[in-house]
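[User]
Protein folding is very new to me. Any chance you could explain this protein sequence and its structure tokens? I have pasted everything here:
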Amino acid sequence: MIDFEAVKEKSREELFREAGSGELGLDSAEARRRIALYGYNQIAFHRSKSPIRMFLGEFTAMFPLLLLAAALLAFLADMLSPAGGYDLIGYALLGVVVLNAVVSFLQNYKVEKLMISFLDYIPKMVALLRDGRKVMLDAKEVVPGDILFIQEGDKISADGILVEATQLIVDESVLTGESQPVQKLPLGICEEESCHAFSGATVMKGNGRILVLKTGRSTSIGAISMLSQRVEQDLTPMQKELREFVRRITWLALGIGTVFFAVGFLTGHTIWTNLVFAIGIIVANVPEGLLPTVTLALSQSSMRMSRRNAIVKDILSVETLGSTTVICTDKTGTLTENKLRTEFFYCDFTEIPAGDHAVYRDNPASHRLTEIMGLCTDVIAIGDERGRLSFRGDPTEIAMVEFVDQYAGYAALRSRFEPVTSRPFDVKSKSMSSTYRTRGGTLYMTVKGAPEVIVDKCREVYCEGLVRPMRPDERQKLLSQAGRYASDGLRVLALAWRVVSDPEAKVQELTFAGLVALSDPPRAEVPAAVEACRKAGIRIIVMSGDKSETVSYLARKLGIARRPHVVEGRELDTMSQDQLVGILKNEEVVFARIAPEQKLDVVEALKAMGEVVAVTGDGVNDAPALKRADIGISMGLRGTDVARDASDIILLDDNFATIVHAVEEGRGVYENIRKFIVYVLTSNVPEIIPYVAYVLMPIPLPITVVQMLCIDLFTDMLPAIGLGNEPPEPDTMQRPPRAAGDSLVSLEAFLNSYAFLGPVETVVSFVVFFNLLYRGGWRWGSVLLSDTPLYAQATGAFLATIIFCQVGNVMACRTSRRSAIGYLSRFNPWITGGIILEIVFIFSVIYLPMFNHFFTTASLDAWVWCWILPAPLIVFGAGELRKLIVRRVH
């Protein structure tokens, strides 16, 4: 394949000869040979995943493996003690792992189907010159040496050199990130890269022929796609923290089990008895309900985000976004509308905002300016059945014509003039002109172009309703004003006119009408989103392929930076990572004219600084950075398949403000997971301590294996899911992102569960247990058989007390530090339903004879409930007291 950099020095004949082609294109036999040599013109944007492999992959994470190991231990304990009910634990744990895998798989498979539906980026059919004839073929059949026809609306399907071009304007923003469309010229009269055509770009206007030089993975879009596929993704913060939690809980369980085994051995119990109870303690320490609860909480959060037009490809990404400290965002189409709009007019030496129609209407020069904008254009107007107009053509002209249509009526304006001649925009003269005949028969030439060119050709100026000679100071004033607009990142055009006698008259001796400044405006919702990010302690860094002035202006306008420090791509080329890290410490830094691999460098530097990085984008050039970031966010409407495949979250409405909602959702779900981990771990203590007490003391076993299983996998489940669905607390977005060392299950959470609330529940449960035993005639040290009514009543009361303690615990856990008293009246269907289910369950297993034997329970007298019913208030009060102390300390 021919090197692009070398083509500028070649003639048309040399280029065709080196490409092995000619003016009539390739013949079919040669095309087939080249397909065998270069391969088909296609790129695997998204490698489809096998559903079976996706499902099996759900079993390979650390937590499912821990639960599977616990299930094996339970089956081992059942072999050693067949009547202990350990087989139920084993089957329950297997059921939990399978259920979790199914829920997670269904979520991910739904997203996989969505991704496949997106794969329509490269055009299916293209026009080629084959065997000397123009034919329509599948885009994958294009090979180097082909002649490819392009016209308005086409997406270019290969890289090549323009050998013909007529008024050709191309949008390359998906590749370069630069918002302004590019005018393309054919080989021979092109400058720099203006004769290069790239796969993935869209033809905005005109037509042309391309000599194809690169196809498939060799194209620019293919190279970036391959770069993004080589980039490795790190584990998400949630994955890292769950892995750390599994490590801690595993060592805790093994440690307690080992100590318990040794103590039991020393106290005279048989080795098999000790092993069975050690396994029981290990299994009791494993929070079996945590995995499905985490999965359901993340899945439901993903569904809530989907209702806000954000598709989450991996449910763990929800929480990652809540951890974000830096958002690196593209400009075009992300912060801006990717559609030019008139911002200011400068006529009669006065600046007029485009939205101020009253001031504009009162200025005499504005009427002439409106005429020139509506006449000096090549746009195509298309009317619908209601008579409303839409426009196709150059985005700059569309922006001005849309203003004209809104202000004066485009069709009405044009009806007053008869077109005579038109000179299209010329890249060398940097201007275009159109001549019309008025109703009075006058030839009226309208001109627009670069300010420095048009102002130089003007001898007169329209001012205060009169045409008069332009003074030198006025000429300088106009150029200075145009320069100020340009420095603010606005696109500036000068408009002028001339009455001529010959339709072919030269563009000179003009009368100046005014300046028009245009911009790619920010999305209306972005300023509020930027402010919300600032309050939440999230930094925003703009990384754009656009020019410095545009990026700086936008950063100032949106409040991203007051005095932006703009770093261009060529500066980045000379920096080491340490130097880049030093630059990034400047809170006001933004990047312009940046290449795809340089975006990747910025992300790497930020990650080296310990930041949790989110990257937003829609173009192919964003894909490597999207994939390397901790969280990649692509645009669903105008985003490319490459970007969507590399991202973790897809915004279906391309709305930057959706990110703020997603951050709040992510922060909320993280806090909620913390809450229900505290809730779930708390009940482990009154499950573990009875085993320890049973071995060390001459007492009956207060809780059976089946009862323990009921708490972990039944009564605790719905309230835990309810905690996972709590709305974010009011100050969620006023707090900074959590610190890097702040773990999901912190020392504070462990102490709260294992050293405070857990012991409180244990003490309350033992008080009820021993009170019932003593009233029933049992005395310390005496033997109480497991098949006696008193033992069944005591274990049932112990189980009931734990469950009622957990009712108070779940209400206390609804807030982290704020008082939960105000939340008692807030309706959460999962928590309310869970509490009702717990009460129905405990009364059923205690008072329905059919359940008594299986659950080792018996009917309780009314006086026992006088001791059980205060349990929720005791635990809730303890939780509130702890939070009060924490608030005062902090």
About this structure: The CA atoms of residues 71 and 91 lie 7 Å apart.
